[in-house]
Amino acid sequence: MAPPGQDTFSCHVINPEKNLHEIHMLKRTVSVYKIYFFLMAMVLGVALYIGYELMVHDVYQDPLTTEQRRWLTAHDGKIRMAPIPYWEPMEIFDENGNYSGLVAEFIKLLEKKLKFKLNLVHENSWEEILNKAQAGEIDVLSAAKSTPERDLYLVWTEPYLDIPNVIITRKSYKGELTLEDLADKRVGMMGKYVITEYVESTYKEIKIVKLKNDLDGLMRVSLGDLDAVIVEFPYASYAIGREKITNLRIAGEVKYRSLQSIGIRKDWPILRDILGKGLSMITTAERKEILGKWMYLMDTPFYQKKQFWYIFAASVVTSIFIAGIVTIWNLSLQKKVNEKTREIVNQLAEKEKISSKLLKSQQRLSTLIGNFPGMAYRHYFSESDPEWPMEYISPGGYELTGYKTLCGPGLENFFFNVVVHPEDGIYNRKKIITALKRGKPFKIIYRIKTRSGKQKWVWEQGVGILNSDGIMDSVEGFVTDITSYVNAERDLKSSKKLFQDLVMNSPVGISIVQKDSIVYFNPELKKLLGNKPDQFDLKKLDRIHPDDLGAANLFFDKIKQGQVSREEPHLRIMTLNDGEGIEHCKWVHCRAARIEYGGVKSILLIMLDITHAKDLERMVAIDDKMASLGRAAANIAHEIRNPLSGIYLYLSGMERKGFKRGFHGEIKESVDLIRDAATDIETVIKRILDFSRMGVPKFNIMDANVAARESLELSKVSIIRNNIQLQVNLDSKPLLCKADYNLLQRVILNLLSNAAEAMRNMTDEKRIVLSSGRKNKRIWISISDSGPGVPEETREFIFDPFYTTKSDGTGIGLSLCHKIIADHNGSISVGDSKIGGAEFVVMIPAHGGARG
Questions:
Q1: What whole-number distance in Å separates Cα of residue 81 and Cα of residue 144?
Q2: By mean pLDDT, which of 59-63, 288-292, 759-763 is the weakest?
């Protein structure tokens, strides 16, 4: 409170004196000159850099002769060039047809330097490109190697790319390898390439395995099917990174280099000379930049480049020069400021001696308020008068709002009308009036707009001041900036929401348990377990597979007792498929950890769906088992066939003798029965030999729908004869894939036959549904029936060799189907169909192409 008869604040009492004003002017001058010299330094630095660039870069000069330029202008946009398909990362076409890659970078740079455009032609294979180039339908090859055969119809520029070929092995092979070290090793290489012909002719002791594409070789080395593969270094680094093959390494480099040139039709030597000049214009720096981008080579560090040191030296000299000028000027100005400060201090000391105690009190109060980290104010107040003119605002108002003057003549309501956010002004007035009527202080939070247009959040606290008559006629208060606190609170809420979104959308089931109660249960866990139970007694869940209840009970009991088990069991959970009421079995990996949630010790329970991993594990086990049984089956079939041939001979002899002696009747009937039994044995032997002799599929690009329709036609008569309704839902678009047509047809026929066989003795409605489609990069074919289905407990065994539930079955059919689809890099699975029986789904990769 102010002393009696004195105002608490006054706009005139604490206005700066003349000398103080001069100090502020000097300080402002110092700041202005600092900004001026900083800007001058920036301008000088930019000028030096531009000058350097002008020195090191020449103005463009056309390297072509008049005749060459005229020819190139006449053919601009008409020269046909065919990039090599499926040659990542050398040449790449994305889904939108955009052309990129290492070779593409050189071609685009060549177009830029020669100021012309090529006409890109898309072809399906390297062989097709060579054929069309020989026929004159393609003018330019972007990158290839000169050979005697190609020289008959092409001329070449000087080589502009030297692509190293490297030896790729598994990381378990230690040390460096050369071609000599690969003797007697199985080494994968692409056929019909110069490097392959070189290795075949020079290192005949290497066992070369021809590949369908380079990625096939990398995958086979990763799986241990090959000892090594020889590929181009750019593709190796690109494919290993893209496919995330973590167990491979570069073990050595082949001395033979792939020198790549641009090939031009033989009747256009002028174009060869033009492109040769363009290639010579590509600088070493540009070449390094392209190779470093696509071949992951180490470029020269920036601190080893002359350009960096030129710019750095110029900047240092400029900075030292400007710093010296600024320092001298600052010392001069600082001297004047110090002299003026001493003069003012002396004047103030004199004034303090002659000032009254009241003036000292007011000055101390003003100094205290002026140093507040906010704005102190005083304004007139009347409940009936909407205008509350400001009588005083402390210097802190400038720091808060950016306005130097907030009160005075003509600015009485400036703070309320201009600074306070218009949406908050009326609300503030109502809250202030309500508090002052009750004789209490008020506290409000609202927004203001600074002079620069920035929005700030402020906190204000004020109280009513009574005059000598006990009537409230003014309000004094304080306003401080709380923007950082508001932003921090908002960021905290945003962070909590982000964390919540991550957990809510996590593909991992997450729950938090406190004192036998589940306090959190994310949607993914709901998909696995159903609705959240009230108490943590998961032993009562009926969705846990019966065979896993023991492990589940032990794990959950330890959690309830507060013991976080080090064991992480794998459990099977029965789940519903998309609300269709069809149950599917999923494998989940369980893990528990101690955490603190909401200040309470809790247990974090995580369930991860590992069904796909289990399926892959099962498929690998089946493949191993099939390989072993195949070898055994071949031996067994061979051993049985020899005595079986003897049985046929004896039967033929018995028939001849019996016929001569007139024995017919029961003896002939017995001979026929023995022959039929031998024929059945021969059939089984033939299927066993088919199983053991399954060769490498002959892949061709085909439409899977065609194989499905052909299989349907072959089995339609049998299906209709057995009164089975047939429904066909094949995709309307061609489903292109790279597969062996006969083997894929064989799988579909086998599945259709099994479906019909399963419903043979049914009296209810019999239905078979054949469907197909494409999902992401895979093609699927499904065969569903309305038969008895496949029990859950036998599904994991039905693809095992010689496992069957039929009394007259061999258990080979589904094993053969599984092996055929596995050779196609696909999968086959069984589940419940929507029409009540079993559903077999075959999935194989869609056609994506490979470099030919």
A1: 12
A2: 59-63
* Mean pLDDT of all residues in 137-164: 89
State mean pLDDT over 187-191: 86
Residues 6 or more apart in contact with residue 68 via CB below 8 angstroms? 270, 273, 274, 277
In the predicted model, is pLDDT for residue 708 greater than 70? yes
Round to whole Å and give the CA distance between 648 and 676. Answer: 11
Give the tens place of pLDDT for each residue, 62-106. 888 999 899 989 999 999 999 988 778 888 887 787 888 889 899
**CB distance 478 to 460 below 8 Å:** yes
Structure-model confidence comparison of residues 504 and 689, the more confident one:
504
CA-wise closest residue to 581 among 832, 840, 792? 832
pLDDT digits over 316-339, tens only?
777 787 877 877 877 777 777 777
Q: Are 294 and 89 in contact (CB under 8 A)?
A: yes
Q: Distance between CA atoms of 187 and 164, rounded to whole angstroms?
A: 17
Compute how many other C-beta atoms are within 10 angstroms of the C-beta atom of residue 560: 16
Nearest alpha carbon to residue 615 among 796, 791, 779, 774: 796
In angstroms, the CA 719 to CA 766 distance is 10
- Report CA Rg, the chain: 44
Question: Omega of the bond prior to 791 within 30 degrees of 0, cis?
Answer: no
Q: State how far the Cα of 2 lies from the Cα of 361, in Å rounded to an integer.
A: 10
Angle 644-649-654 from CA coordinates, rounded to 5°: 120
What does the pLDDT read at residue 840? 92
Rounded Cα gap, residues 15 and 452, in angstroms: 25
- Residue 444 CA to residue 421 CA, distance in Å, equals 13
E strand or H helix at 328, and its extent? Answer: helix 306-354
Report the Cα 666 to chain-centroid distance in Å: 76
| Range list of β-strands (E), 374-531 | 375-380, 390-393, 442-449, 455-466, 472-481, 509-514, 517-521
| Short-list 417, 424, 459, CA closest to 442 | 459
Long-range contact set of residues 673-682: C-beta below 8 Å, sequence gap at least 24 = 674/647, 675/648, 675/651, 678/644, 678/647, 678/648, 678/651, 681/640, 681/644, 682/644
Query: Are the C-beta atoms of 606 and 590 separated by less than 8 Å?
Result: yes
Residue with the bigger pLDDT between 381 and 403: it is 403
Give whole-number Cα distances, 731 to 441, 703, 709, 736, 834, in Å. Answer: 76, 11, 11, 11, 19
Whether 231 and 160 have beta carbons less than 8 Å apart is answered as no
Give exposure, 87-117, as e/b (b: 16+ Cβ within 10 Å).
bbbbbbbeeeeebebbbbbbbebbeebbebe
Question: Per-residue pLDDT for 809 more than 70?
Answer: no
pLDDT in tens, 413-471: 788 788 888 888 777 888 888 888 888 898 989 898 988 888 989 888 888 888 877 78
Q: Are 510 and 503 in contact (CB under 8 A)?
A: yes
Give the whole-angstrom CA distance, residue 91 versus residue 143: 10
pLDDT of residue 167: 92
For residue 261, name the pLDDT band (cuts at 50, 70, 90): very high
Q: State how far the alpha carbon of 116 is from the alpha carbons of 70, 78, 93, 156, 334, in Å.
A: 12, 10, 21, 19, 63
Nearest of 559, 581, 577, 579 to residue 568 by alpha carbon: 559
Phi, psi of 779 (to 5 degrees): -105, 135
Give the closest residue to 603 by CA, choosing from 535, 516, 540: 516
Contact 401, 419 (CB under 8 A): yes
pTM of the model: 0.35
